[in-house]
Design goal:
139 residues; four-stranded parallel β-sheet; alpha/beta
Amino acid sequence: MKRLATLLILMTSPALAEVPRVVTDFGPVQSLVMDVMGDLGTPQALLVSGGDPHDFQLRPSQAELLSNADLVFWVGPQLIPAMGDALTTLAPQTQTIALLTTTPQRSFAEGGTDPHAWLDPTNGIGWLATIAEALAAKD
C-alpha cells in the first residue's frame, strides 16, 4: 500500500526541471528576464552596472558565462556589435534571442536602427512575452 501511495504522489507531482542558465547582455534586459523567472533563478548580465554596451569587450569570465549558457537574451548587434561574433564562436549550440528583432524598429533621423528599444514601454511588454515563451519552451 505504501508503494502505491508513493507512486501516486510521484505521478501527480509536477516534474522539477533544472533551471536553465540564462545570460543577458546588460541590466535592462536582465531586469526583464528576472521579472519572468521570478524566484526560480537569476540571469547573469555580461555588462557590469554602468558599463557601456556600445564599447563592450568580452573578458574571459564573460566568455565562460556565454559558453555555459542555455539561453541568451540580448538587444542585438545594433547595440553590442561584438557580441554577435562572441555568440557564434563561444555558444554555437545555445539558443540566442536578439530582442530587437521581435519588435518594430525605429530609425535614427540620420539613418540606421535605434537600438535603445527598451526605453519604449510597448517594446518592453513585447519583450516580456518573447522572454516568457522562450523560458517556457526551455522548461
